[in-house]
Amino acid sequence: MTNPHGSWIWYELMTPDAQASRAFYEGVVGWKIDAESAMPGMEYRMIHAADGQAGGVMTLDADMLAGGARPCWLGYVGVDDVDTTVEQLKAAGGSVHLPPQDIPDVGRFAMVADPQGVPFYVMRGASDEDSNAYGRMATGHVSWNELQTSDDAASFTFYNGLFGWEKAGGMPMPWGEYAFLRNKGAGDAMDAVWGAMMPREKPEHPVGWTFYFRVPDIEAAHARVKELGGTPLSDPMEVPGGERVFHATDPHGAVFGLVAPK
């Protein structure tokens, strides 16, 4: 993929029941998810928005669950060289869960974690086409990437050094700054901002990336989450810029966010 180094290029749901997750997210977000695996030798289904692929669904098998894997959403950051990035990550205090490896015709990837223990993937895709899994205003795509961390200063130093991410202003929260993030050299316009990081509100709160999927109607999506067995973690709320958002867990406990116009 030709996306610049440090771009979000893919999103993946890890779930113990792909068919149940398929029914839930198709009903809530409006996706079409493959009924069968799209990759030989593993249970992996593609997620389709109206204008193209938005991510994938990996089935957690018994061995993965026994090894500690849990339902969650993970993001892939595109890099110029996976092996070099992994070595830089280790030197900066990150850890490696899966070392660099190839998927034929897909690309080279590694599953890693930042120094605060937040997991994500790095990848160099084999395709010559850009990924559009992230789309700030694209319905059915991730519209916002948000990190809650136990040490926001250390996290920014880590990601800035690894990917060149820059701060683009922010706003104060009672527990710290909500700092907007953009890619290096993306310019000063707010439409270059793709997400934010902040310290977690309370020490007992988990750290991690939350990905917000764009839907047409936030109230309808909130109702569908409840109808289909998920759990809204808040009512829809307005955020600066006029959009409305809420967090939820799916029926297996994976956390995600939804966003829609006011």
UniProtKB/TrEMBL annotation:
SUPFAM superfamilies: Glyoxalase/Bleomycin resistance protein/Dihydroxybiphenyl dioxygenase. It comes from the Bacteria. Gene3D superfamilies: 2,3-Dihydroxybiphenyl 1,2-Dioxygenase, domain 1. Residues 7-125, 141-261 form the VOC domain. It holds the Pfam family Glyoxalase. InterPro entries: Anthracycline_SecMetBiosynth (IPR052164), Glyas_Bleomycin-R_OHBP_Dase (IPR029068), Glyas_Fos-R_dOase_dom (IPR004360), VOC_core (IPR037523). PANTHER family: GB|AAF24581.1, GLYOXALASE-RELATED. This is VOC family protein.
